[in-house]
Amino acid sequence: MSLTARLHIDQHPRYDKGIRVLSYDFSFSQEVDSSGLASSRVKAGLINLTITGINDTELVNWMLNRWDRKKGKISFFGINESGVPQESKSLKFEDAFLVHYGESFTDQSDMIINLSISCRKITLANADWETEWDMEENA
Protein backbone atom coordinates (compact mmCIF):
# COMPACT_ATOMS: atom_id res chain seq x y z
CA MET A 1 0.00 0.00 0.00
CA SER A 2 1.31 3.41 -0.93
CA LEU A 3 1.42 5.87 1.97
CA THR A 4 1.56 9.62 2.18
CA ALA A 5 1.93 11.63 5.36
CA ARG A 6 1.10 15.10 6.66
CA LEU A 7 2.40 17.03 9.66
CA HIS A 8 -0.31 18.95 11.55
CA ILE A 9 0.78 21.42 14.25
CA ASP A 10 -1.89 23.04 16.45
CA GLN A 11 -2.45 26.74 15.72
CA HIS A 12 -0.30 26.54 12.57
CA PRO A 13 -1.79 28.29 9.52
CA ARG A 14 -1.54 25.01 7.56
CA TYR A 15 -3.09 22.84 10.30
CA ASP A 16 -6.15 21.75 8.29
CA LYS A 17 -4.24 20.75 5.16
CA GLY A 18 -1.03 19.76 6.92
CA ILE A 19 2.55 19.95 5.70
CA ARG A 20 3.66 17.22 3.29
CA VAL A 21 6.08 14.76 4.89
CA LEU A 22 8.72 13.23 2.61
CA SER A 23 10.30 10.96 5.22
CA TYR A 24 9.63 9.95 8.82
CA ASP A 25 11.67 8.12 11.44
CA PHE A 26 10.67 7.36 15.04
CA SER A 27 11.26 4.59 17.56
CA PHE A 28 10.80 3.51 21.15
CA SER A 29 13.64 1.66 22.89
CA GLN A 30 14.82 0.31 26.21
CA GLU A 31 18.10 -1.03 27.44
CA VAL A 32 18.68 -4.73 28.01
CA ASP A 33 21.08 -6.57 30.32
CA SER A 34 23.61 -9.17 29.19
CA SER A 35 20.92 -11.88 29.06
CA GLY A 36 18.58 -9.79 26.92
CA LEU A 37 16.18 -8.90 29.76
CA ALA A 38 14.73 -5.39 29.56
CA SER A 39 16.55 -3.33 32.19
CA SER A 40 15.29 0.23 31.79
CA ARG A 41 12.17 2.25 31.26
CA VAL A 42 10.96 2.67 27.71
CA LYS A 43 12.39 5.77 26.06
CA ALA A 44 11.04 7.59 23.06
CA GLY A 45 13.46 8.74 20.43
CA LEU A 46 13.21 11.94 18.47
CA ILE A 47 10.58 12.26 15.78
CA ASN A 48 12.69 12.94 12.68
CA LEU A 49 10.94 14.35 9.63
CA THR A 50 11.86 15.62 6.22
CA ILE A 51 9.30 17.99 4.74
CA THR A 52 9.03 19.89 1.50
CA GLY A 53 10.86 23.20 1.54
CA ILE A 54 8.33 25.87 2.33
CA ASN A 55 8.59 29.45 3.49
CA ASP A 56 7.34 28.90 7.03
CA THR A 57 8.04 31.50 9.69
CA GLU A 58 6.08 29.45 12.26
CA LEU A 59 8.55 26.54 12.11
CA VAL A 60 11.59 28.82 12.33
CA ASN A 61 10.09 30.67 15.32
CA TRP A 62 9.30 27.35 17.02
CA MET A 63 12.95 26.37 16.66
CA LEU A 64 14.31 29.72 17.84
CA ASN A 65 12.08 29.96 20.93
CA ARG A 66 13.69 27.56 23.41
CA TRP A 67 10.57 27.20 25.57
CA ASP A 68 7.91 27.05 22.84
CA ARG A 69 6.04 23.75 23.13
CA LYS A 70 3.58 22.53 20.52
CA LYS A 71 0.95 19.85 20.10
CA GLY A 72 0.26 18.09 16.83
CA LYS A 73 0.17 14.89 14.87
CA ILE A 74 1.55 13.11 11.86
CA SER A 75 -1.21 11.52 9.79
CA PHE A 76 -0.47 8.64 7.44
CA PHE A 77 -2.82 8.07 4.53
CA GLY A 78 -3.28 4.95 2.43
CA ILE A 79 -5.51 4.35 -0.57
CA ASN A 80 -8.61 2.30 0.23
CA GLU A 81 -10.29 -0.22 -2.12
CA SER A 82 -12.24 2.60 -3.77
CA GLY A 83 -9.04 4.49 -4.59
CA VAL A 84 -9.77 7.19 -2.01
CA PRO A 85 -7.06 8.32 0.44
CA GLN A 86 -7.98 7.67 4.08
CA GLU A 87 -6.05 8.06 7.32
CA SER A 88 -4.63 4.69 8.25
CA LYS A 89 -2.47 5.67 11.23
CA SER A 90 -1.35 8.67 13.23
CA LEU A 91 1.28 9.62 15.75
CA LYS A 92 0.14 12.38 18.12
CA PHE A 93 2.53 14.44 20.22
CA GLU A 94 2.15 16.90 23.10
CA ASP A 95 4.49 19.34 24.85
CA ALA A 96 6.88 19.10 21.92
CA PHE A 97 10.05 21.08 21.34
CA LEU A 98 11.57 21.53 17.90
CA VAL A 99 15.19 20.59 18.64
CA HIS A 100 16.58 20.54 15.08
CA TYR A 101 15.76 22.60 12.00
CA GLY A 102 17.90 22.31 8.87
CA GLU A 103 17.40 23.29 5.24
CA SER A 104 19.04 21.52 2.29
CA PHE A 105 19.09 22.39 -1.39
CA THR A 106 20.95 21.36 -4.52
CA ASP A 107 20.43 22.56 -8.06
CA GLN A 108 19.37 19.00 -8.87
CA SER A 109 16.48 18.84 -6.38
CA ASP A 110 13.92 20.88 -4.50
CA MET A 111 14.62 22.40 -1.11
CA ILE A 112 13.89 20.16 1.86
CA ILE A 113 13.65 20.88 5.58
CA ASN A 114 14.80 18.38 8.21
CA LEU A 115 13.09 18.57 11.60
CA SER A 116 13.63 16.75 14.90
CA ILE A 117 10.93 16.93 17.56
CA SER A 118 11.32 15.94 21.22
CA CYS A 119 8.08 15.56 23.16
CA ARG A 120 6.77 14.70 26.60
CA LYS A 121 3.78 12.64 25.43
CA ILE A 122 3.21 10.43 22.38
CA THR A 123 0.15 8.49 21.29
CA LEU A 124 0.80 5.82 18.66
CA ALA A 125 -1.80 3.23 17.64
CA ASN A 126 -3.98 4.32 20.60
CA ALA A 127 -1.15 3.52 23.03
CA ASP A 128 0.14 6.38 25.20
CA TRP A 129 3.71 6.99 26.30
CA GLU A 130 4.58 9.81 28.66
CA THR A 131 7.68 10.97 30.49
CA GLU A 132 8.24 13.44 33.31
CA TRP A 133 10.31 16.52 32.60
CA ASP A 134 11.79 18.71 35.31
CA MET A 135 11.50 22.02 33.47
CA GLU A 136 12.97 24.02 36.38
CA GLU A 137 16.13 21.90 36.44
CA ASN A 138 16.86 22.76 32.79
CA ALA A 139 16.09 26.48 33.05
Automatic annotation (TrEMBL):
InterPro entries assigned to the protein according to its UniProt record, in alphabetical order? Hcp1-lik_sf, Hcp_Tssd
Quote a single Gene Ontology cellular component term: type VI protein secretion system complex
Look up the domain of life of the source: Bacteria
Gene3D superfamilies recorded: Hcp1-like
Per its record, how is this protein called by name? Answer: Type VI secretion system needle protein Hcp
Q: Which organism encodes this protein?
A: Mariniphaga anaerophila
